[in-house]
Amino acid sequence: MKKILFLLAILCVQTSFAQLIIGNNRFEKYLPMLENKRVAVVCNHTSVVVNVNNDTEKKVSKHLVDTLLGKNINIKTLFTPEHGLKGTQEAGKLINGVSYYKDSIKIISLYGKNKKPTKQQMNDIDIVVFDLQDVGCRFYTYISTLEYVMAACIENSKPIIVLDRPNPNNFVAGPVLKKDCKSFVGMQSIPICYGLTIGEYAKMINEEHLVDSLRLCDLTVIPMLNYNRDSIYTIDVFPSPNLQSMQAIRNYPTLCLFEGTPISVGRGTNQPFEIAGFPEYPIKIKKFVPKSIKGVAENPPYMNDTCFGVTYKINSQDIELEEIIEMYNYFPQKDKFFNRMFDLLTGDKTIKEQIKQGKSADDIRKTWEEDLRNYEKIRQKYLIYK
Fold first, then answer.
1. Distance between CA atoms of 164 and 197, rounded to whole angstroms?
2. What SS3 class is residue 144?
3. Whole-number Cα distances in Å, 24 to 31, 66, 68, 80, 96
4. Are strands 307-311 and 275-278 parallel, antiparallel or unpaired?
């Protein structure tokens, strides 16, 4: 009996430390679907295939597009999200079309006025592959790009393959978006942190008819191997110019709300989304001076001004409204603290009003508990991983 328990213990340890294999590395599952097809790939700099060298035990990365070309897949078009193919464009920056691989592959930006692929852009392709590293927040626009691409696939009768990846903020928290706050930074009535991988999210919005009320997308999700949704994963390639550390990604669900206020989140410094403050902040613990950084933060808030603030290390699985309330209380011009973006980011116009009324963070959270429970019932149906 002891021997059996010992063997089971070894098996459990081996399983827990088994190498994570993300969707794009499971070629046996999706390459047959691409053979003799004209392929479009929704990708950016995060779309890399990572392997471990058996001799050196070092990670070896190669872009998915280069990998597929090496396997004689006929790639016609690359669709890129916000921040562009190389991930070097700052938030909100419009990107002009360029070409890839000796000018033989078109690159089309799905940002700005052209968020959804047009009929003309879909004409010369047979199938779409989607591979982007998301961060698990409603207002991070890669899931909006996914939805627009799925809508274009429905309208043009094209299948789509979503190559699944870990969600670094894999929990459910925050207010559920209200219909009057819908925008590109929030297209569906989901919480700020929706607790799904991007493949699970694609399944949910498809099968709940959130993309199209009448038709389903021809969707295939390539799941990961050895993925444990309770584990914390380090991303191999950071997803955008101002999310360049795992701490910044963990802070992001809360600190991004400051983007709807006059508070600096450290854009233009070497710690974006790890610090926050403003020139008049009375507690002079953290001092920083935002500078213009080409392609990252060319015109950051309080550029060249000395700011004081706080260094954040948020590791809870919640939206830390206490931090927003504290900054609001310290800000001298209360009537200028919130702007329209705050409503779009929270997804609920009542949040700022409750903060103005002096309600506590716990009292405000209670107002979205019922919506979260209703969302959780829907979410449970689409979990691929336990």
1. 7
2. helix
3. 10, 12, 10, 17, 27
4. antiparallel
Long-range contacts of 206-214 (CB under 8 A, 24+ apart): 206/150, 207/381, 207/382, 208/378, 210/147, 211/147, 211/150, 211/151, 211/154, 212/151, 212/154
Length of the chain: 386
Burial of 123 (0-12, 13-18, 19+ CB in 10 A): exposed
Sign, CA dihedral 12-14-20-21, equals negative
Contact 56, 207 (CB under 8 A): no
Residue type present at position 248: A
Per-residue pLDDT tens over the stretch 120-167: 999 999 999 999 999 999 999 999 999 999 999 999 999 999 999 999
Tokens read off for 158: 């094209």
Condensed to tens digits (0 to 9), the pLDDT of residues 202-254 reads: 999 999 999 999 999 999 999 999 999 888 888 889 999 999 999 999 999 99
CA pair distance 203, 201, nearest whole angstrom: 5
Single pTM value for the model: 0.91
**Largest Cα span, the chain:** 70
For 17, residues 6+ apart whose C-beta sits below 8 A from its C-beta are none
Helix, strand, or coil (residue 300): coil
Q: Which helix (H) or strand (E) holds 107?
A: strand 105-109
